[in-house]
Amino acid sequence: MSPISVIVLIFIPFGLAAKATGAPEPKRDVRYDVKHERNVLDFWPALKAEKPAPVYVWFHGGGLRTGDKSQLEKNRSATISAFREAGYAVVSCNYPFLSDQIDYKEIAQHCARSVQFIRSKEGDWNIDPKRVVCSGVSAGALISEFLGYHDDFANPDAKNPISRQSSRPQVVVSVMQPRGTKESVLKLMDKGEAPIFIYSNAPPSDRIHPPWAAVMMRDKAKKLGIPCVALGGGRNQLPRPAKGKNWLELQLEFCQSHLPN
Fold first, then answer.
1. What is the crossing angle of helices 139-149 and 104-120, to 10°?
2. Is 13 exposed, middle or buried (0-12, 13-18, 19+ CB in 10 A)?
3. 185: enclosing H helix or E strand
4. How confident is residue 119, by pLDDT bands cut at 50, 70 and 90?
5. What pLDDT score does 8 carry?
6. Looking at residue 216, what DSSP letter applies?
7. Closest CA to 248 of 261, 229, 222, 226
8. Are 116 and 123 in contact (CB under 8 A)?
9. Residues 138, 166: contact at Cβ < 8 Å?
10. Mean pLDDT of the region 65-78
11. pLDDT for residue 20 is more than 50
């Protein structure tokens, strides 16, 4: 390839580069429910589609009052690339914010609906509904854990096929575990439930994402015999990734090892 060709490719925007390489285009602002204007998601098909793909579902942070699904693409595009290259489809979800009418549990129920909707697209999107990871940062971590450890919202007798789908992921990933962990998640956890990967590089002075919240999740999982890996980046007492590894690689390895074959 000539130097000029290389320069041209460098400046092709992400979407146009996907077209140039033949990568499947993302589906944006797909409506997963009609109950709220923020019931929308973005879907990136797996790059390798020989068989139904496992799904990595992401919930954004923002204290349940701000944030947007675009944060995954803007701030953590490496996550999209790593999981798609490993054969996963990737989904980033919006959800309603806290208000006088909507509390935390209702927000989590909207998110449960998004997981049920995603599973209902099994045939259309070539995905495996039995291999779902729910992940998120900060408030999104709490949402993912709620879905992993709350009773399933599936209604086997429902007429609506989406409502019959499971809302529970097979694996949970928490990034920057926040305050509220004890009140919203720990009491839900039980033996035999979803393995969890935890990453927090927050310093002890972080009041929103105190490292003890991540330690609390790790210790509860250990007590219940739930498979768990908890890592930090050197700013707290959590162990750092082994030399030559980064936490994204280890997150992917954890998901691969704990999803059913």
1. 70
2. exposed
3. none
4. very high
5. 37
6. H
7. 229
8. no
9. no
10. 97
11. no
In this structure, what DSSP letter does residue 113 have?
H
The answer to whether residues 25 and 75 touch, using CB atoms and an 8 Å cutoff, is: no
Residue 259 has pLDDT above 70, yes or no: yes
With tokens 């496992």, the residue in question is 54
* Secondary structure of residue 47 in the 3-state scheme: coil
Q: Which amino acid is at 106?
A: E
In this structure, are residues 248 and 233 in contact, taking their beta carbons and an 8 Å threshold?
A: no
Q: Of 95, 224, 92, 201, whose CA–CA distance to 149 is shortest?
A: 224
SS3 category, 138: coil
Q: Does the pLDDT at position 12 exceed 50? A: no
Measured N-to-C along each axis, helices 77-85 and 247-258 cross at an angle, to the nearest 10 degrees, of 40
CB-CB contact of 60 with 140 (8 Å) = yes
Distance CA 261, CA 246 (A): 25
- Strands, sheet with 228-231, edge to edge from the N-terminal-most edge strand: 27-31, 40-44, 89-93, 53-59, 127-137, 171-175, 196-199, 228-231
**CA separation, residue 78 to residues 146, 222, 242, 247 (Å):** 25, 29, 20, 12
Contact yes or no for 213/139 (Cβ under 8 A) = no
Chain position carrying tokens 């995905």:
127
pTM for the full predicted model:
0.91
| Strand pairing class (89-93; 40-44) | antiparallel
pLDDT of residue 23: 76
Going by pLDDT thresholds of 50, 70 and 90, the confidence category of residue 2 is very low
Lowest mean pLDDT segment, chosen from 4-8, 94-98, 128-132: 4-8
138: tokens are: 């900060």
Q: 52, 72, 53, 54: which is closest to 62 by C-alpha?
A: 72
Question: Can you name the residues that pair with 136 across neighbouring β-strands?
Answer: 59, 174
| Alpha helix ranges (H) inside 32-98 | 70-75, 77-85
Token pair 């007429």: residue: 159
